[in-house]
Please model this.
Amino acid sequence: MLTVVTSSVEETIALGERVGMLASAGDFIALTGELGSGKTHFTRGVAAGLGIAPSVPVTSPTYTLVNTYAGRLQLHHFDLYRLAGKSDVIELGFEEYFYGSGVCVVEWAERLRDLLPVERMSVTFTYLDENARTVTFAPHGARYEKVIANIRRA
Model:
């Protein structure tokens, strides 16, 4: 486990960018945290780290549920805030993305419950104050232990 404190939106984006630079095909990043805690800013950083053009607006897919962006690897950005439960995920066919060759970043990942991939990196965002956040990384699998060790070194 790794805990990082960010003091600004820019620091949260930069942390996400480090994760994006370390990402490999098939990675699954499960984001949890309160509304407005930094999940989408972090995802913007992941996009930058994957080489997605800065001119491409990375926005939370609250109503579309998933946005896909082209970079070094495809980024599939999910926002499950509006889903009622895992039956919605199954019905919408999201699982095919979860085990594909792109990188999945899923906001409100706790809504997946037992559909969460066994191997994944969980990232939890917690408010400290108006600008500061605690970002906690938890690995689920050897691949993600290595990723977190590399984040720690950066």
The mean pLDDT is 88.
